[in-house]
Amino acid sequence: MGSPADEIDRQRWIGLTFGQSALAVCLLHAVLGLILYEPTLFPGGDNANYMILGESLRSGAGYRDLYLPTEPLHAKYPPLFPALLAVLGWLGGLQLYKLAMLACTITAVWLTIQIGRRLLGDGPGLLVGFLLAVNPVLLEYAHYVLSEAPFVALILLALWAAGQSGKRGYGLAVVAAIAAFLTRTAGLTVLLAIPLAAALSQRFRRATLAGGIGLAVMLLWGLYQRWAAPDQAGYLQELALRNPYDPAAGSVGLAGLFARAAGNAWTYVSRVLPQTLTGLDPIAVPILITLIGVVLATLVLVGWVRRVQEHVGAAELFVLLYAGLICVWPEVWTDRRFLLPLAPFLLLFAVSGARQVGESWRPRLGAWVSRASTPALALLIVLPALAFVARQAPLRTGCVARYRAGDPCDPPALASLFAAARWAQANTEPDAIIANRKPSLFYWHSRRRGDLYRYSTETEVVIRGLEEMGADYVVVDQVSGTTLRYLVPAIQTHRLRFEGVYEGGQPPTFVLRFLAPPTTALRPVARDDPAAAQAAGPAAP
Length: 541
Hints:
Layout: H1 4-35, H2 46-59, H3 80-89, H4 94-120, H5 122-133, H6 136-141, H7 148-162, H8 167-181, H9 188-200, H10 204-228, H11 235-239, H12 254-278, H13 286-310, H14 314-328, H15 336-339, H16 343-365, H17 367-404, H18 412-427, E1 434-435, H19 439-446, H20 459-469, E2 473-476, H21 481-493, E3 498-504, E4 509-514, H22 518-521, H23 530-536
Helix pairs in contact: 1-4, 1-5, 2-3, 2-19, 4-5, 4-7, 4-16, 5-16, 7-8, 8-9, 8-10, 9-10, 9-14, 12-13, 12-14, 13-16, 16-17, 18-19, 20-21
């Protein structure tokens, strides 16, 4: 047996080795993030919303949607992420925003390693961090200017700090949880998990303090929303709809909500979970994907139950609350984007579950099963993920080269829409209102305000919405099927109200001038008054 000094030296060496390994895993993620870097905008439009809100804060205009016709106060997205972009905007632009997202995902990998080390040990903690570092979804969101990357980092910071001893750690956990909520409303799950975990540990003073602060923050944000936009549908109202993109479909009842939760749970297990953790295409071999999803979900459940049997902490409660939340979202929002905040914990519990299954099979099948279970899980996740990187790397490096040459590699339909936006900037009045399917992205490229056309199959409702918006132009794009479903029939029914002024791109995008009704566009003109006749314009056909 060595001396106490030798033991101290050994512990220092182990700590140094673990720290170096953790840094190597984070460096790997950074390198892969740069290899898969995409300099263009995410096509969803939320990124433009966030950047415009950042511009609004930076300009002193307040927290406003500058791209909308009336530039109203914004009341849907919490303000922390736009505030971050507002600060970064003084130092740089789009590419700096993207690099900041990569910094957030690197932080998420580091914190995952630390949480894994505390719950499973050094080796398994590094393995979980490595699996997250090569995760295709995290690598994708490492260059999207969206709130997912900082949200995941803040969730992990809150739950890592909640596991530390002392008041400082718990205070940091509460602050990070509040920041997560002010980044995405779904952060209420971690804001609830932390005081609940404290209450279950019989630390009632901490639970009361954290719960009271969290409740106050939620109430303040809710009061602001009611004040700033009393008529705006919030997430709770959208939660009650069958389809937020088709309001005519109506609302779901309580039974429908349970049915939706069950259906979404199966969709996540059979498709989204294996796609998120491995990067496999869910369409390629559906049966195999479903089988992998069931295996992964089973291992996660085994690992989570094992942890709950030992200790119910904030991380275990967060997984339960957040999983329940995304299962009751409308089916159209069942996506890997919403599963991403769970990914570090899904990997952690999957590794724990694999170790547990291996140990339980050891008496029957031998020690090799116990030793092979975790490596088998790692290969199941890592090999498809690295294959994804190998497939995408040439495309992404080519995209960066094209972007530097002035040829952004946007999808064709979006490139066509953006070309129409640039035309609008050069050929329409600065105060023109342009209705289109992607108003924030259109504004980002055109600096012309506008809004969505109404989602209604009743053409009169769509036309009335354009009138109330004060639209001067409408855009017929190929980006979304809602344009063909809602806007195009209204144009066809009211042909005299529209005049083509632009056609371009492949597939083509059209810009149409929205005219006043024929009955009100003309005024009676006396035949013997040439000046009035000239001012009134040409006669009706």
